[in-house]
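Q: I have two molecules that I believe assemble together. Could you output structure tokens for the complex as a whole instead of separate predictions?
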Amino acid sequence: MSLTPTEWQIVGLSLKVALVAMAATLPVAFALAWMLARGRFPGKVVLDALVHLPLVLPPVVTGWLLLIAFGPHGPIGAMLQNWFGVGVLFRWTGAAIAAGVMALPLMVRAMRLSIEAVDRRLESAARTLGAGPWRVFGGITLPLSVPGILAGCVLGFARSIGEFGATITFVSNIPGETRTLPLAIYSALQLPDGDAEVLRLALVSVALSLGALIASELIARRGGRTLHVV
Amino acid sequence: MSFDIDVTKRLGDAQVGAAFVAGEGVTVLFGPSGAGKTSTLNMIAGLIRPDWGHVHVDGETLFDSGERIDVAVERRRIGYVFQEPRLFPHKRVRANLAYGRHDAGESFAFDDVIAFLGIGHLLDRWPRTLSGGEARRVAIGRALLANPRTLLLDEPLSSLDDARREEIMRAIEHIRDVFRLPVLMVTHDMAEAERLATRVVRV
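A: Yes, here they are, computed for all two components at once.
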């Protein structure tokens, strides 16, 4: 049982979309995680709720909101079109945006927990040794939160691979452009003789998701062991 | 005068702080638990901000509520050995020791410090593999190598067995007599205070 060239193309597209989604969401997720873990500002509860919204909102609603925002007349869509001449609608980049938005809450959660787990006493020790705030961040806080950041990335990647509802609403199901694994499985299910393809693509999905979850767990464990504080 | 300290801060219902003037040698802050000894060290180091008072160390004003001076922690050059070693878990002993080192103006040579503390054989170890006494000696070395003008020690002998306590006491005596670094030390143990102290301040 091997994949057809079209199926390989689907797997390749899914990996590309998920990797780009993860990489683009990483800085945003880290900034949000930092604000939620360390920040003290009015409206923190609201920000927290907004970040988690894609987790509980029907994905089709998220997709529709993206459609409005990134459409040719939407605020972000018009800006991208006028300034850079790019459109993301019905493009694989749009699929990456949808996947990134859906992965955001998971990534923020993992990163926030690891930032909160950093022992603040180590940071004050570093400051008494002459390190300014940026050096403390770069040399102490950031490396100590790396396991959570990596775990968040892997989870975000896995979530992106599986993204369906927001993607199909936002960028439709275009072969070769936005038809990622779940969308291809959905399409194959509509075909009378699509069973074999469904099985093959489903197995690939299971393997990728399982691999990501195991990787995330291993990273978390390894982190927990090395970073035991004395 | 090495220390000219007068600080107070409200923590909940209690008022903590201390006022004293001290010179060379080892000054022991002595008092029962909860008297605010550690808070006083934290105020001198700049980790907590006093409500009122002043911190003059080595002739320099580090904090003065009246003159609105509050020097940042990282610029105070006050070595601080906390009650728990607070070694950086992601750095080996060597990198922990080097964290605060400055190429310019190093008052104590690296080799001298590791020699008198007896930590030369630990340089490639991870902090989690150290015993309590070893970790504390590394923490003292790390503070000394950051070129401090004075050293704060918070209960440096607590939770150690007699042999380990003796090692740390010898190290403190070495800092006092050979390095001639002014030391401010917190303890609630009278025997320690009597052996090491040049003077005792009751809190």
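A: One point stands out. Helices of chain B lie at 37-45, 93-98, 110-117, 132-144, 162-179, 190-196.
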